[in-house]
Amino acid sequence: MKEQKIAILGLGYVGLPLAAAFSKHFPVIGFDINADRIEELSHGFDRTKEITNEELSETLHYGISFTNDENHLAACTIYIVTVPTPIDAENSPNLKPLLSATETIGKFLKKDDIVIYESTTYPGCTEEDCVPVLEKISGLSFNRDFYCGYSPERINPGDKINTLTKIKKVTSGSTPEIAVFVDELYKKIITAGTHLASSIKIAEASKAIENAQRDLNISFINELALIFDRMKIDTNEVLEAASTKWNFLKFTPGLVGGHCISVDPYYLSYKAEQLGYHPAVILSGRRVNDSMAKFVATKVINLLLEKGNYVKGSKALILGITFKENCPDIRNSKIPQVMMELEQNGIETDIHDPLADTALVEHEYGLKLATAIPEDKKYDAIILAVAHEQFRKLNPRALLASAEKGIVYDLKNFIPRDQVDGRL
Fold it and tell me: For residue 406, what are the CA distances in angstroms to 288, 306, 385, 410?
């Protein structure tokens, strides 16, 4: 393998660990359009907490350079795209970040360069949507002058065990030779090994169904929670009993947020509908999971009423806004929807999360977080929404205005059953 210089475009939860890993083997430029992000990384600070400050300092020692100046990309030979692929208000794919990054690469693309996409998308997106942009801007021909690969990211934000190098990596390339090249490239950093797919579309599809499968499994459990709530039986106790069978899949009910599981099924559905097929199962799972925020808010309201509270004017504290425990990632969090439902019913609501970036929450959701649990304020309802380790020693009942009328609702099965009034 000849000497290469790698550019990573997008330095979020996926791009930064990838840049750090490759920097131990190749010269690397980490590019991001967010100037504040570049400034922080250049000074050894990662707000996502995906790599420690010590690891980041080590990465800087290897010679990685972080920049928001696209002209620095000109010297690179391999471009790896790790930008977000969100959905719009109609749950359709928003390819603007992906195509914008592609346009940037097109300005600097040279003969024999390789563009590898890691951003999750639908099968066909790389070759049908991105390649034409590369050709148009660069003036080069695909698979003659430049080549592409696809290797879907498998980052699990906040997971310090299943990290980038320890998760098997799917790889692919636009020609058989480039596929082998891409596979060998990732073998440099992935200790868990690689799986070389036969085509870019196969690799794209594999990523799409990974998350769609998990979304469907969770939607089934969430639907059970809706049913068992009407039966007045505890879903978690049912799951505990059922899981004694060796082949029972251990999923739990909850709000489904984050950048992958709550988004990727819509990408797959979009492509299916383009081809004339309506994916009934995938979309039914999405409908169930998207309904859970309203269900949680309604449950809290009913619990307040059962204890003789006036709903309008009640005060609620939500503990946690990130989409998962022990992680600062707020992407597609469903907690703001819970808060909106409560406030529409006249409940004054505060949110506290020790891990979330308060400025980012305000920018993304227009919400002001309580930087600490107010010492001079008592609540009628406490909602444990995210099972952060920082909440483990907390006594939520001590935050209630009334021990008799106040309620504690646990979305995460985190608090002992005898200390809560309801749980999901």
Answer: 29, 10, 17, 14
Is-contact 64 30, C-beta < 8 A?
Answer: yes
What whole-number distance in Å separates Cα of residue 422 and Cα of residue 128? 49
The class that CATH gives domain 291-423 is: alpha beta
User: Which pTM value belongs to this model?
Assistant: 0.93
Q: Which residue among 76, 125, 130, 260 is the active-site one? A: 260
- The residue extents of the domains of the chain are 6-207, 291-423
* 291-423 has the same fold as 6-207: yes
Nearest to 9 by CA among 111, 127, 106, 121: 106
Among this protein's residues, is 260 annotated catalytic? Answer: yes
Burial of 20-38, coded b for 16+ CB within 10 Å and e otherwise, reads bbbbeebbbbbbbbeeebb
Give the tens place of pLDDT for each residue, 278-318. Answer: 999 999 999 999 999 999 999 999 999 999 999 999 999 99
Domain 6-207 CATH superfamily: NAD(P)-binding Rossmann-like Domain (3.40.50.720)
Strand (E) or helix (H) holding 30:
strand 28-31
